[in-house]
Specification:
heterodimer; A: 112 residues; mainly beta; six-stranded mixed β-sheet; B: 112 residues; seven-stranded mixed β-sheet; four-stranded antiparallel β-sheet; 11 strands; globular
Chain lengths: 112, 112
């Protein structure tokens, strides 16, 4: 079946450093790739997304890159801050179906 | 802002009990989803609904049922709760099946 793999499962960085989280997907027809952030005690919230007609999208300190040939996309957080500490999920829709598959999540720790 | 609310933040139930988890969204979204979240497994789809009274099984529907009598409300039912259903349950809604999903805060269920 369709799958989304996410790495690493845990990431610890020093405040001010960059963090990168990577995902690969299996459905070559997928065309929408969101990233969600889940803070403690809350549901996931969309932080950025990218569609298949662009290779990169940036919003202040966060950016997402997409390589359709290799079927992978990445989340980049620059100048990390303690409030970036959370669990991050990537996702991709199943084409022709009615669902989105989520990665297993990455727990990011930003040390002050 | 889209708001998705869930009836309980925490629930403790006994094995064999019938459990109802309620979800309400206020943005007139056609689509609603129930996921369970377990460490290392990400978000797994239990059921989704694309219209009133319409439902589709997700990846792990066994032991669960759903009800959508009104557009804004989507209920998850555990017919006979078991200990392996101890988990975090997340409800989400979306204007499209392959677009941003808006999540509620989650219900942490403990089955004893």
């Amino acid at each position: 079946g369709e799958n989304v793999e996410q790495h690493p499962s845990t990431l610890s960085v020093q405040e001010g450093d960059s963090a990168v989280i990577k995902c690969t997907y299996s459905d070559s027809a997928s065309n929408y790739f969101p990233w969600y952030k889940q803070e403690l005690g809350k549901g996931p919230q969309l932080i950025i997304d990218i569609r298949s007609n662009v290779g990169e999208k940036k919003d202040q300190r966060i950016a997402v890159t997409l390589n359709k040939t290799a079927k992978h996309f990445s989340l980049h957080i620059t100048e990390t801050q303690p409030e970036d500490s959370a669990v991050y999920f990537c996702a991709a829709p199943v084409t022709g179906g009615f669902k989105t598959i989520f990665g297993a999540g990455t727990r990011l720790f930003v040390k002050a | 802002d889209v708001k998705v609310t869930q009836s309980s933040r925490y629930l403790v139930k006994r094995t064999g009990e019938k459990v109802f988890l309620e979800c309400v969204q206020d943005m007139d979204h056609e689509n609603m989803f129930w996921y369970r979240q377990d460490p290392g497994l990400g978000l797994r789809l239990i059921y989704f609904s694309y219209d009133v009274k319409m439902k589709e099984k997700g990846d792990i529907p066994e032991g669960y049922s759903v009800s959508r009598e009104k557009k804004e409300r989507f209920s998850l039912i555990l017919e006979s709760a078991s200990t392996n259903q101890t988990s975090m349950y997340l409800c989400a809604s979306s204007p499209s099946l392959v677009k941003t999903q808006y999540f509620g805060p989650g219900t942490r269920l403990l089955v004893l």
